[in-house]
Amino acid sequence: MQNTVTPTHCPYCALQCGMNLTPAPDGTGVEVSERADFPVNRGALCGKGRTAPAVLSSAVRLTSPLVRSEGGALVPASWEEALDRVAEGLGRIRARYGADAVGVFGGGGLTNEKAYSLGKFARVVLGTSQIDYNGRFCMSSAAAAGARAFGLDRGLPFPLEDIPRTGCVILVGSNPVETMPPFLRYVTELKQNGGTLIVVDPRRTRTAEQADLHLAPRPGTDLALALGMLHLVVAEGRTDEAYVRERTIGWEETRAAAMAHWPEHVERITGVSVPALREAVRMFCEPEAAMVLTARGPEQQAKGTDTVGAWINLCLATGRAGRPLSGYGCLTGQGNGQGGREHGQKADQLPGYRKLTDPAARAHVAGVWGVDPDTLPGPGRSAYELLDALGADVRALLLMGSNPVVSAPRAAHVEERIRSLDFLAVCDVVLSETAALADVVLPVTQWAEETGTTTNLEGRVLLRRRALDPPEGVRSDLEVLHGLAARLGGGRNPGKGFPTDPEEVFEELRRASAGGPADYSGITYRRLAEENGVFWPCPADGPPAAGSGPRPAYAADAEDAADPADAEDAEDAALDALPDDPARADDHDAGAGVHPGTPRLFLDRFATGDGRARFVSVSYRAAAEEPDDEYPVLLTTGRVVAQYQSGAQTRRVDELNAAAPGPFVELHPRLAERLGAAEGDPVAVVSRRGRAVAPARITTAIRPDTVFMPFHWPGEGRANTLTNPALDPVSRMPEFKACAVRLEAVRP
Ligand SMILES: Nc1nc2c(c(=O)[nH]1)N[C@H]1C(S)=C(S)[C@@H](COP(=O)(O)OP(=O)(O)OC[C@H]3O[C@@H](n4cnc5c(=O)[nH]c(N)nc54)[C@H](O)[C@@H]3O)O[C@H]1N2
Ligand SMILES: Nc1nc2c(c(=O)[nH]1)N[C@H]1C(S)=C(S)[C@@H](COP(=O)(O)OP(=O)(O)OC[C@H]3O[C@@H](n4cnc5c(=O)[nH]c(N)nc54)[C@H](O)[C@@H]3O)O[C@H]1N2
Ligand code: SF4
Ligand SMILES: [Mo]
């Protein structure tokens, strides 16, 4: 145990709030105290962050490996035995059925070092293409749409500190009062500065209560809403013609598609009135600058990529992207939701946000890994498709950082697939519902017990520091991968290439990412400690030309920019308008050859070959499952402030359970009356996938045609028993946010 203050970051969401850890006075564990120097949260924390040390306690966590005994129970075992069993289990299946019969499932909460090592382990040691992760269930539609339009996906292309200085923010399907409470500060400051807030959510959430205008569309209809707004932009002559001409491609087709979506038609689809739609367009278009921020509401749809694309089109048509204090951004969710999608645990990806299908990327990464590029497998299945293939094509699974028995769509089916595996190994800090099904459970260290980097929702790479010793009996995920590589890798130097020291892994990640879209090569642990984080891209080869400030380091692209002189003028003006950036530390004078990092992307050009953004023409289509006579109500799902994700961690914290003890079904009084249900009565929600039961929570804050359930709990009230695994064709995101259900009264 160190006895000084350790500045670090929260283990949970993508804000990655700064916090200080100090040794607890009674000598057991650590306490959280305020860390005011981190700009994102300036000391503020939500209840989850404040109580995070409770999950470090041995009382709630795993401190010994567990193996499945002959009798079927999980019993304690030594690390040697447990690792031998995992290596034997994975190796046996690989030998018998081939490498692609072994799957790997990762998580967006894993540090960059872990995500990187996991992807490398799958491709180099197991030789399998079958790796994906829970980020597929999170922001993958926004990532796909961002990459399609801008040539690059970074959740926010600007720091959070820009938000209060813009003119209008549209928050689409985002409820930060529950999901990122310290974010509220930015909204409050926006309003103090005279800016306005529009919230698009089928529920009048606590976030919507802050809005100047709340639009409450039917779940699954955001695409129509955005198209209707674009229609009005054109009809009212609010298009930024010069911007569209100079900085975009593809407007004509997009314009034509929008013109086919009449506001009256949009009103019928969405339930949002034409006057409200007009008011939203006015509020968004009148100020100098404006932003659209999406979260899971519009993204977790079987058309999430097109839906986010439609919101991006609205930004492009009005000149609100790649300009100071304007832009489209996605509020990424998990602690390392950003970095977790950049370094190779995704089915189609290599480190540095490179494509697995790109021969140059394969050659570069294979070079760093010391293997022949031809030995790297191709892209594998997406997360749901991988889970759906378990027990059939994929017979063994190594799982790290996710709890799909609770969090995957059509969860009863997924649970049954997991049970049908020949072999399952789970690394976790607690005995999650998924770990409880494993053949071997490996207990691992967590945030405060290990050092590592995460990349927050702004693209700011951060250093989490070890603040206390882990309990005896646990090892880090990196040690697990090292131990398995040593057993499975073969060769003369087994385990080589899987260091257990996070900084050593990061040094290799720097090289692997060098020259890629998410270039970390200029970032070191030392810089992260000194600078409170560094925004990627941050190449190693020194700063951009003097005076050009932070600019995207697309070295190869930069040469064919349309007109570099114009671009630089525009950028200088743009930079003058921006607040000082704390991340641009003065102590790195330009001569030192240190790249300052890139807080703001796209100000002079987008990351496409020609520097222009792409309009992608989209049209409205209905949810994969619309209400009918048998299933007449729409179910949507989401979160409450006191529980996190599958609840594996937060359901083990008394204070959080007291605040949010269990699942519920939020429904409108009219629906409750028809059902004959009073507040607190058990209600059954039935979909084509299954049936869940939870107490009624009756409120006029939800549309009468919609019910809402949070997804944090297993068992009878598990929301994901009901959800529809219909996938977006591009991002392979399941439709968590809209499916058809019927309600039944439950007689006690
Ligand atoms: N307390 C808490 N905080 C968290 C998490 C957590 O589990 N608990 N998880 C973290 C993670 S990984 C993520 S991804 C983020 C998620 O953060 P958010 O996206 O803010 O969370 P959700 O509650 O999933 O969805 C947001 C809102 O979308 C609305 N919605 C539902 N259907 C639709 C629709 O069709 N259209 C629109 N426009 N809105 C719709 C819901 O009513 C909900 O209020 O939160 C992060 N922070
Ligand atoms: N119906 C519905 N379902 C949803 C969503 C929704 O809105 N509605 N949202 C989706 C979204 S956005 C997400 S992100 C997913 C998240 O759902 P999950 O992927 O289940 O996420 P967590 O519950 O955070 O699971 C993380 C697990 O890893 C463990 N863990 C924590 N830290 C570490 C570590 O360092 N190493 C290892 N090995 N394990 C660790 C935790 O104890 C926990 O068991 O849920 C998705 N499911
Ligand atoms: S808002 Fe997110 S990062 Fe901040 S304390 Fe809460 S869970 Fe942690
Ligand atoms: Mo997420």
Overview features:
30 strands, binds iron/sulfur cluster, alpha/beta, 24 helices, Dimethylsulfoxide Reductase, domain 2, seven-stranded mixed sheet, six-stranded mixed sheet, Rossmann fold, Barwin-like endoglucanases, 3 domains, binds ligand MGD, single chain, binds molybdenum atom, 748 residues
Describe the structure.
Helix 7 (222-235) packs across helix 9 (251-259) and helix 7 (222-235) packs parallel to helix 13 (304-317). The chain is 30% helix and 17% strand. The longest helix is centred in the N-terminal third of the chain and has 19 residues, at 79-97. The termini are far apart. The protein is of the alpha/beta class and 748 residues long. A seven-stranded mixed sheet has the order 5-4-18-17-16-6-7, covered by helices on one side. It has three domains: 66-137 and 337-519 and 523-545 and 553-590, Rossmann fold (3-Layer(aba) Sandwich); 140-330, 3-Layer(aba) Sandwich (Dimethylsulfoxide Reductase, domain 2), CATH 3.40.228; 633-745, Barwin-like endoglucanases. Residues 13, 138, 172-176, 178-180, 200-203, 205, 219-220, 222, 295-298, 333-334, 636, 638-639, 641, 643-645, 708, 737-738 line the site of one ligand MGD.
Number of strands: 30
CATH topology heading of the largest domain: Rossmann fold
- The largest sheet has its strands arranged as 5-4-18-17-16-6-7
Q: Please bin the fraction of helical residues.
A: 25-40%
Q: Give the CA-based shape.
A: globular
Distance from N terminus to C terminus (CA atoms, Å) equals 52 Å
Q: Cα-atom Rg, whole angstroms?
A: 25 Å
Please tally the helical runs, counting DSSP H or I stretches of 4 or more residues. 24
Protein name: Nitrite reductase
Region (Disordered): 539-599
GO molecular function, one term: molybdopterin cofactor binding
Domain 4Fe-4S Mo/W bis-MGD-type: 3-60
